[in-house]
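Recap quiz, item 2
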Amino acid sequence: MAIYKTAINKPITTGLIFVAVIVLGLFSLTRLPIDQMPEMDPPYVTVMTTYAGANASDIETNITKIIENSLNSVDGLKNITSTSKDNMSVVTLEFEWGENIDEALNDIRSYVDLLYDNLPDGVSRPMILKLNSSAMPILQFGFTANESYPGLDRILEDNVVNVLNRVDGIGNITVSGAPQRYVYIDLDPKQLDAYGIPLELVGNAISANNLDLASGTVKMGKEQYQMRVKGEYVESSEIADIVVTTTATGKQIFVRDLATVRDTIKDLSLDEKINSRDGARLIITKQTGANTVAIAREVRKEMEKIKKTLPPDIEVTLIRDGSEEIVNAINGLTSSIFYALLFVVLVVLVFLGNWRSTLIIALTIPISLVTSFIYLLLADSSLNIISLASLTVAIGMVVDDAIVVLENITKHIERGESPREAAIYATNEVWTSVIATTLVLVAVFVPLTMIPGMMGIMFKELGWIITIVVCVSTTAAISLIPMLSSKMLREKTFYLTREAREEAERKEARKWFTFDKTIGRLFSAVEAAYANFLRFCLRHKLPTFLVALAFFFVSMIPVVTGKVGMDFMKEQDNGQISVSAELQRGTRIEETLKTARHMEEDIRQLLGDDIIALSTNAGSNDDAGFAALFNSTTNNKISMTIRCTKKYDRKRSIFEMQEELRKCFAEYPELVTYQVSQGGMGGGSNNSLSVEVYGYDFNQTTAFTQELRRRVEQNVKGARDTRISRDEDRAELKIELDKQKLALHGLNESTVALYVRNRVNGMAAGYLKEDGEEYNIVVRLREEYRDAISDIEQLSIPTATGRIVKLEELGHVEEYWCPPTIERKNRQRYLTLTVMPYKTSLRDMAMAVQDEIDQMGVPAGIHVSLAGSYEDQQESTRAMMLVGALIILLVYIVMASQFESFGKPAIIMAAIPFALTGAVLALLITGENIDMVGMLGLVLLIGIVVKNGIVLVDYINLLRERNIELNEAIALSGQSRLRPVMMTAFTTILGMIPMATSTAEGSEMWTTMGLVVIGGLTVSTFVTLIIVPVLYGGMERIREKAFGNRNKNKFVFMNINLNEE
Amino acid sequence: MIVFNQASTERVEYMLDTLGIRGFTFWENVQGRGHENGDPHRGTHTWPEMNNAVMTVIDDDKVDELLLSVRKLDKRNEEVGIRAFVWTIDQMV
């Protein structure tokens, strides 16, 4: 027995099955975590190897190349990039999105095991790391303090970190920029030299007097005692009284004779300012798979409690809350869904004019949508932007089938049938075509799940959700809808007597507002007008067709001229700006800070009230002072995070604000480069262009790239935030030791290096313990004796014989420019120039940059390619095109088999190009560029447009077979199908409006899709209503001329003249 | 022999019951079209509706009553359609 018959005969079973589905769905909903995106772990694996003492090019030849060569054959590898810098090689393997990374990890591990023997001795075992998206901080708090600042580290550790660690799902809590307590022993080298004492002696004396050692057990009588030597410092002042040594004259030399002991906070190196006040930042990450939103809520709640326990001068500011974006985006989409639901129900009510029918149809929406939650739970996914946006898209589609079924049932009831029988037989008439149109949608959405790459991960969820939702809605349309109709719809009242009928008619006439009199009459008028227009067009087929064609080509002009450009993904206004700036290499941290303060002031002035929090950090966590020059330092770098008000609370968009900041920073002479970009989860941008310059010769490639950057900044419109990945050569001090002189003094390079390090960077001399915490004791020269090249040359180095020599006797110190880190991609040296578009599309900018490159001419030995988001865009566009072609083919197959005709599907598909026209127009009017999500909208359009065409052509076919004259059949079916077509179009368009107009955070991503669908569907619906019938008319006419006589020949026996025989 | 739109099945059965007619032969899904007007009932995509047919052998005096009921039902909803044909039964086993 057919499903609809069973459903009608067993209303309780049917009803309860759907109730069960709803309950399951709602249950799944409560179990779903909320996240920003579907789980998509970036497919990167990093192999890190350290080789102490080697410089960048040593690392490159001895380690990086070997690792690269052998890992190059790992399955599924897309790109292999590497960075070789002092002491360290980092090889990153990029896989295709969706590749099984765990399998790749195993592969890599075995390759690394094999190659380890080929690496030089002394190389550490390579570390293999998988990049994990949960390592991104979800929350950042700023703590500012006045009096309590020196003790902030301790306060945060005890009162905040320990408390927060108890929150479920917290991964890691890091305190950045809190002052650390240090005990410095600042030695005076003149005193040391006077006594002939090396620095190490002082350090050793200090650590040797700071002991807690077990010295065995002592048995006394019946007891047994543990014995310890206990001499740990209780207070830092004790250190001053330690005896370092005794001179030959018997005089004791104390630490206080040689040095000053400072119990203080660590010398400035990393500077944290929050809202221009001293402070520290607390960075919180979550565990893998934990629910960001729940953790953030919990942490914020805890933080409120913690605030009360903190000293009054400590202020807590929320710098960044990763969950806020998620919650806002989700809330925005949720309200879009509800608005869409409302609009769709209103459309149905207006078109059907019957609240019972409207209620029945409205019921299918939640049922279909709720099933998607079951899918999400089974697929281990979450409520995220993609899944919710899919639901918004689906709302307009799920009612279509229900409408078709219900309409036919109503028609039967109007004729006087009982609702029950009408439901059975009316459903029987339409159920196959309902399934066929659903198949068309499935043919559109299933291929979407097959897109490769990052886009694929996003569209996979969308594809499945819509497929599932649409299938469920069809099932509901042929089971639940007939069942509900049989129960809820009223039989047409039948009057036994003529008086009763006339009385009822009079009553009806007295009502001034009925559906039939108002909206119904309007519809009828529109339908009649449309039919007349259609007849007119059918008489003038060729002109109509040419006008449409011209319309199409005119609309393509903006695309060709670049008025409507192409981006990869929209940048989102999430109220975060991150600023990074760089001063001249080797700038002292103090100078950097001055600039930072200046910038802060300007930012405050420019952005004013739009700032909620401004956090700045500069420098690095390395040790300060001259020593920083020996290390790779970031003392010249400033980075800022600005949290602004929500975008609907301010007049300027974040992009305009960024542009203002850029203009302001351009006037800073001391800034070498600066970037003002979008802050956010990854901090990375998803709409950038990178120019990759490959070449072996550093100077050549660097010069080329710098020239390109200059030209791009000058000539390319809208190019902002240019950045070259290769750091400029950095200034370093190098001590060149004379090996013969070293040998003379019984020294070697490594001992000298250690001595220099002890004097400049400091020698660790144990810890000062207090309340279970350990604080470093550092012995080193006083700062004024180690902050010039001449001072370094004057360092005293103890020889093997106990004598003391000056460093300058062993060699000389000189300043030089050290080679930068070496980056490689696919086993070639390269560097990148990153450019961000501002008020221009990524594609146009890429073309302009390519022009610049062509004008410059690429010298031999250099190879240039455009990459970054632009490359992703190209790849995704290609993938989309391919999937688009696949979809069109599948849809064609489904339609051809439905109509058993090759020509008719082609006619229906003739409306598809006009969807493009509408999309372009919509984008042109709103001044948006198309991006990947917009492309997705185009793909969706294929399905919806075709569906409308099917409805129309199917009915023309039907009327033709009922022997109605061609043009009249077309006009009549146009008249009769206008309402369903308009209904499908309106439900979808109105369902999209909340999405297109949403101003919620993160909505940028979807507005383009909304616009594309609205524009495309509006235009293509009108075109479908005119061009498709006209083409049908034309084709039928030709076909009839060609094959018209065939039927007659088939039944030629009727013409046999029996009399002849 | 009564031929009618499937959608009237329940009403026809009710009619037979109220008239106290017990015996009948019932065909489901039969096709047909009328001489003058009304849509053909062919069960195709073009003409999706179908008929059922019931044959009942009754006493002569009940025939008029049954035809009257059929006419009432036809009057109730003409578009749905019902027709009755009367034969004489010569023999039966």
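The radius of gyration of chain A is 38 Å.
The first helix of chain A runs from residue 3 to 9.
End of item.
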